[in-house]
Amino acid sequence: MTYQVFHRIVLIGLIFLLPQADAAEQCPPTSGVAVQVLGSGGPIADDPRASSGYLVWVDGRSRVLIDAGGGTFVRFAEASAQFADLDFVGLSHLHVDHSTDLAALLKSGYFSKRSRELRLAGPTGSDRFPGLQAFLDRLLDENEGAYRYLSGYLNDDEDLPQLHVTEISESTVRTVHDDRVSGIRVDAMRVPHGIVPALAFRVQVDDTVIVFGGDQNGTNSDFPAFASEADLLLMHMPVPENASAAARQLHAPPSKIADIAGRAHPRSLLLSHFMARSLRTLDENLNIIRRGYSGPVIVAEDFQGRPCIHGPATVGRAGRP
User: Fold this and answer.
1) Are the CB atoms for 55 and 64 separated by under 8 Å?
2) Are 40 and 75 in contact (CB under 8 A)?
3) Residue 208, Cα to own-chain centre: how many angstroms?
4) I need a labelling partner for 202 at 20 to 30 A (CA). Which of 52, 53, 130, 218 fits?
5) Buried residues in 39-62 as b, exposed as e (16+ CB within 10 A)
6) What whole-number distance in Å separates Cα of residue 56 and Cα of residue 38?
């Protein structure tokens, strides 16, 4: 399987050409699977990046959205993505920089004339964080919601599509979306992110697999198997190797990411979730990654309105009539 990577080359300059002649000229390609980085940043407004958000295109249509941090609403529009085309939205966890633009996206969807339901998945809650359903209720409940004027997403209003919500509590892998017509399947599993309930997602389109590792400290011993042999593994690298113990409870340092990638054997590794302070040690962190993982390494940047130039990877897809 061949695939194409467009990025600002930081460590390795590898480009894998798709069979389609026009693949190098546009994103999304008219056929095949593409991952587009809508937001490669984090919670600090100190670098011109949107917060976390990733879009999976299938045959030129925006089908899967993973995370909706601040700024991804604008990037979604810049990418010419369509709310009506979305099959699935996954929120890895409910930190602001991964979830705050969901309400804006739903408001935009009000004008989409979409009628079919939209599947969402996220973690269950804890004493410090609501679960996904409670989060949506606090936003959209017809009596108490902050945006109660959009309550039709929850209460069978014929003018709005219904949200089909799945919460993940267990550490075992669970399928949260499976559409045999489109060939898209999404599995989720819990990953450790300090006290924050969090998920990783594995998106499979026919024979193409993309794994979104999300925010995690890398201590779930089952995660490398979950990410095994992915065409693209996306890992967040906001902390340096010498991060404090508190930071390591939230995020995997580069050596842990390298260990995961070395055991999972993805065809390509995409690193994301940067801020100005995490970029200061980027070269050092990349050298550590390279000592544990020998495949292509991509450093994500927001695509900034241009065709998939910064950070996205396009993956060759097995043909389907």
Assistant:
1) yes
2) no
3) 16
4) 130
5) bbbbbeeebebbbbbbbbbbbbeb
6) 10
- Confidence category of residue 26, pLDDT binned at 50, 70, 90: low
pLDDT digits (tens, 9 = 90+) for 51-100: 999 999 999 999 999 999 999 999 999 999 999 999 999 999 999 999 99
Q: With CA atoms as reference, report the closest residue to 166 among 210, 204, 119.
A: 119
Residue 200: both structure tokens together: 């990783």
Left, alpha or beta for 273 (phi > 0: left; psi -120 to 50: alpha)?
Answer: left
Show the tokens assigned to 289: 């990654």
Q: How far apart, in Å, do the first and last CA atoms of the chain sit?
A: 18
pTM above 0.85, yes or no: yes
Cβ(148)–Cβ(140) below 8 Å: yes
Q: Which of 319, 234, 311, 321 is nearest to 4 (CA)?
A: 311
Sign of the C-alpha dihedral computed for residues 314, 316, 320 and 321 taken in this order: positive
